[in-house]
Amino acid sequence: MSFASLNLAPEILRAVHEQGYSEPTPIQAQAIPAVLNRLDIMGCAQTGTGKTAGFTLPLLQLLVPFASSSTSPAKHPVRALVLTPTRELAAQVEESVRTYGKYLPLRTALLYGGVDIKPQIKSIQGGVEIVVATPGRLLDHLEQKSINLSQVQMLVLDEADRMLDMGFMPAITRILAALPPIRQNLLFSATFSEDIKKLANGFMRNPTMIEVARRNAPAELVTHQVYEVPALKKHALLAHLVKARDMQQVLIFCRMKRDADKLARQLVRDGLSATAIHGDRSQSERSLALDEFKTGKVKLLVATDVAARGIDIDQLPFVINYEIPNTPEDYVHRIGRTGRAGSPGDAISLVSPEEMDYLTSIEKLLKRQITRLPLPLLGGERDTRPPRERDAAARTRTSAAPLSEEERRERSEQRRVREAKESARAGRAPYQAGDSPVPPLKAPFPYPHFDFSKPYEAPSKDTQVESAVVASASPPSHRPQTRSVGALLGRKKIDKP
Ligand code: AMP
User: Fold this and answer.
1) Model pLDDT for residues 286-295, shown as the tens digit of each residue
2) Which residues line ligand 1 (CB under 6 A)?
3) Which of 27, 43, 89, 166 could form a disulfide with 54 if both were Cys (CB 3.0 to 4.6 A apart)?
4) Could you give the domains of the chain?
């Protein structure tokens, strides 16, 4: 299928073409015609599937008849509202709207909290057709009557599950009350809990279900690894892994904001470039941290689950769970940050004995045990491991990754001392550095790609991507809760009405 067959205006097609997209992703192929047919939609999809363009392109198309070059604010009432849980996601969605709508005279406003409200009021007063907002700040605008939503004809709730997790339900209810009753509703969510179904049943009209697996399922591209490690040794292990594997861009997850800050500080003290992103940081601090991480200025970004939502980095090679999440769904969300856009990724979890129960429920969801890696010897430690474990660690280490400069020097020094001792014993001249350089080990990671044997099915050759299926509006409550997570993990959609 091509974008040209989707009945989009030439201005939109031109912008899409400039992005270099050759064909719609499965969710786009399903969502765009359905939205253009003015259907309400419930989409089970997370970031990475192309869902933003899936709703942005038809949204723009439906607004084409209202596009106006008039300078009068009255000619630009708010006609479409997109709600997102976080400021980062709001900014990304708004950027997409601007990108795909660049050849149309439609105006957009981005409204989120943590920044001065006055410039936002000014932009709304100038007239905007599309508003992308976080619920809290939009509510502020409604309360001070700086926005009029009475002409909204289209509502999008993006990452609705996160909005509920973050306690936005009361805000959403109040926002819904400010919208005209007749409108088109789109809801996207990575998981479909009872609460989401209740929310959807409350405001959607006979929604069409669209379910799609990630464009590049974690099953295909992400290697999962676990280190069982006492909590007190996690920091040393993390610093070791970053150096030993020469990691250049790592998203590290903590459960609590204060732990994220503390860890980032510790890593900086270790001489690594690290920063933290979480809800207690100001918007400008968050944007700066994200920017520095994306551009490679900072290698390690320590994040909490909520703050990491919507972070879209196409080739993020490593995700490290410094603390394992306490729900398996969060694990799926976290690993969804790597293995994107055809690039392989490693998801590494440092699991202390106290966290083993969480790991068990994650493995239950994945339907397999995650590979355990032997603990490497950490700095300042005497190797007290039994010989077999020590050998296994050495084998894994040797074949797992090229050694860092520091490790090469350390090994070369150990070897020099050992050989000097041996030479002394044998009456030979001691080894001189440079005599026979120790070759750097260049073996690639040997870990087999993670294989979800069930329920994942490899995509067929001709599709490359997981299929998406539009099913007619079966009531969401009939769907078992695990389905959507299965889809996230790469399972093909087999929706039956
Ligand atoms: P999303 O799921 O909306 O967060 O999109 C994930 C990534 O896919 C973004 O980096 C988009 O630029 C990219 N993308 C969206 N649509 C397409 C497409 N049709 N072909 C290739 N890449 C796409």
Assistant:
1) 888 888 888 8
2) 21, 24-25, 28, 47-53, 312, 314
3) 27
4) 3-211 (3.40.50.300), 222-395 (3.40.50.300)
